Amino acid sequence: MTSPSATAAASAPPYFDVLFTRLQDEPEMRRAFGRHVHWGCWSDPRQADGSGADYAEAAEALCRRICDAAGIGPGQAILDVGCGFGGTIASLNERFGDLQLLGVNIDDRQLQRAAETIAPRAGNRIRFQQGDACDLQVPPAAFDVVLAVECIFHFPSRRAFFEGAARALRTGGLLALSDFVPREDALRFLQSFDTASDEATRRTWGHIDVTCPLSEYRELAEGVGLRLETEDDITTQTLPTYSFLRKHMRTWPDAAEAALFDKATAQLELASRAQLLGYKILTFVKE
Ligand SMILES: C[S@@+](CC[C@H](N)C(=O)[O-])C[C@H]1O[C@@H](n2cnc3c(N)ncnc32)[C@H](O)[C@@H]1O
């Protein structure tokens, strides 16, 4: 699933083109993905009912779990990289006061939607900035927390992102992210899928690299003055995402497009169900 040396120019992933149309045409998709665009986290996966409302609840639960892992509270400055439609920023804005929130995204269309849908509550400041996660243009040591919710696998270079995130954090600040993290002993097998040259993946999910095991995360972090602090494996709790996506792909008007998405998603699903690929929440502290 993409060799470690593969690189790609930063661009908005193709699934957002589909998503913008679906959000307009399908209320159920709007309910599921109008705020967060990430996998859900179900406290009891057997209770997942396949509805958009249930999915949205699970997506909010994932967002909160990551924000809580970072210990976010009132009065903090937060940088949300790869912020999508600003769902995490919206959630923090609702939960806490006296926040300074900055969302960065490669895709201006998403930022526009975020700015149109989120109103800062009194005392909070919210800004959105177009930019590449691997070339963060933000003031140094200005943030208590940097977030990267389910987006780092899209970035052309994890290393470049880690360098920028470390620069942006004050000493003692935290980087919190969620990612698909391979089991160390499954790495060679997953690399053999080579998602960089898999047409279905390239045309749907875009550039994805899910071949960074925990040992590599540890090294990356140490190289930029961060230390891996916590690791939370929530793979099992994310699995209802796949049946939700499959069910909704079947309703898409363009069957060929749906089949391509289905094919690309099946690889992730198989690897996740076989416990070769974990879904983890990781936090790193700036030393
Ligand atoms: C799966 S979505 C997650 C969005 C958001 N974090 C959320 O949880 O709703 C991945 C996001 O990463 C953004 N992205 C991809 N590559 C990027 C890059 N190089 N720099 C900044 N954002 C990027 C995409 O535009 C998209 O918004």
Structure report:
The protein is α/β, with parallel strands linked by helices. The chain has one domain: Vaccinia Virus protein VP39 (Rossmann fold, 3-Layer(aba) Sandwich). The chain has 12 helices and 7 strands. It is globular, with a radius of gyration of 18 Å. Bound molecules: S-adenosylmethionine. S-adenosylmethionine binds next to α4 and β2.
CATH top level class name: Alpha Beta
Largest sheet: 7 strands, mixed
Distance between the termini: 32 Å
Hetero groups in this structure are: S-adenosylmethionine
Largest beta sheet: what is the strand line-up? 3-2-1-4-5-7-6
| CATH architecture label name | 3-Layer(aba) Sandwich
Rg: 18 Å
Strand coverage percent: 15-25%
| Global morphology | globular
Overall helicity: 40-55%
Element-level helix/strand string: HHHEHEHEEHEHHHEHHHE
CATH homologous superfamily (4th level) name: Vaccinia Virus protein VP39
